[in-house]
Amino acid sequence: MRSRGSARSVRAAQVPRARFRDAPLPIGCGQSMLAPKIQGRILQALGINPRDRSLEIGTGTGYLSAAMSLLGGATIRSISMRS
Asked: Cα 48 from chain centroid?
């Protein structure tokens, strides 16, 4: 996966004062990014291992895909469509 810094910079770039809040972050088009606590719980539940492969459909910002890749070293395929 090519890292574009999304795991580190989405919150900071879009809403500087809200980067440390545990709340959904609006990302435009009436959609929002999951709260960090929810994303953390998803990552814990997945229990990603380096040999795992994952397909994420409806990626949105790519934050969760980037976090999965960084934490587990797994191979992540991510697909998202914008209208």
From this structure: 14
